[in-house]
Amino acid sequence: MRMMLDGPIKILVPTGSLGAGAREEEVRYGIAQGAHAIATDAGSTDSGAAYLALGISKNNRGSVKRDLTILMRAGAEAGIPLIVGTCGQAGGDKNLDWTRDIVVEVAAELGIRPKIALLYSEQDKEMLKARNAAGKIRPLPPLGPLDDATIESCDHIVAAMGPEPYIAALKAGADIVLGGRTTDTAVLACFALMKGAPSGPSWHAAKVAECGAQCTMYPTNGAGVLISIGNDGFEVEPLSPGNRCDPDSVSAHMLYENSNPFLLTEPGGVLNVTDADYAAVDERRVRVTGSVWEPAPYTMKLEGAGGGKFQTIMLVGIQDPDVLCRVDEFHDNLLAALYERTRKTIGAAAGDFHISLRMYGWNAVSGDRPPPGTAAPREIGVLFVATAESQEMATQIAKACNPYFFHFPVVLDKELPSYGFAFSPADIERGPVYEFKLNHVIELDDPMELVRTKWIDLAKGEGA
Questions:
Q1: What confidence category does residue 463 fall into, taking pLDDT thresholds of 50, 70 and 90?
Q2: Do the bridges between strand 9-13 and strand 37-43 make them parallel or antiparallel, or are there none, so unpaired?
Q3: Any idea where the Acyclic terpene utilisation N-terminal domain is (predicted)?
């Protein structure tokens, strides 16, 4: 029989991502409402593979330190834990260590001595090869079966943790838990699950709150939310008094980064909200009931990233009315001329290269051709991208293409135009192209077996 709670478990979610801008007055409000823990995600794959491949953060150090200072001070004063998942943007070991160093620095400045748990989820390649050979790793669409060469091509590989390592750290007395790659929901659900809250409401509340105030009616009016998880449901309210939640804003967040608005797959199960009911408690709060957790065999998602070919770019701005009235034609003719120019001047030495033109102000985001009759833009920015096996070759291709790129006419019998180049020298070496190479799940018997836990106890002078 499931243990019944004496009262709701309240989790203060200060922002959608550490470093995005926690608000001190909102954190004070959440503490005053009786928050039992502060929990926040700190990363995502949204900004691409480079942050995992390089082990760096998208957010600058100052913004992360600012948020941590607010949250660590509040947690210490209230005597409640601070829980951070996917540290340093990507959750690799380097990303986690970067965050650890900031936390230790902030602790010294605040004069506090927390016990800090570090949860590492970066994976050994040889272990993964062995698990793969044993049939324990399977692909997620659209990828196919995993091979050793793909594993080797990754600079870093992480496994997305569930709540269990966080629960173990909290039970062992952690004041601050810093996690490597973790599902966004697990880091918010772990404390309530540890306290015996029902799984359905705990996971659903975490999903709703994962992006902070994005589940509210006015996301720009605040940064965070407070979730209160009880025996038969949960409530969510904004931390800002000038903000509101309503059933639509709360229910809609199941659509965020989720292919199915009713089912959410997590380590060890599936959250099913098919029969969930969303009801306004008052003009600020929403209560949700009917969320169900369906246990399933335990898996962790693997993410691997690495560098590939190299790129050099050039940029021009064009206001030539002849070009603006015939953008598609200009694109096709210029691209063909650039390929021909590269083959004639560099030849076979160019290797397996690629050139693209991205027409900003026309169709650079989608790549789709606008429908016939679309009005000519006022101006366009054209980004040239050469991709080759080496940085030197990508730059040589850009240099070969330079005269055509800056002067190619759409009307061949007119005087050659000159387009507005943004920089001099025009060619900019962008470096390697980083990409995600793994999108697989690994089957496990023990949720802890791929996680390494380390401790820093500042009360004992460790890590100071």
A1: low
A2: parallel
A3: 92-405
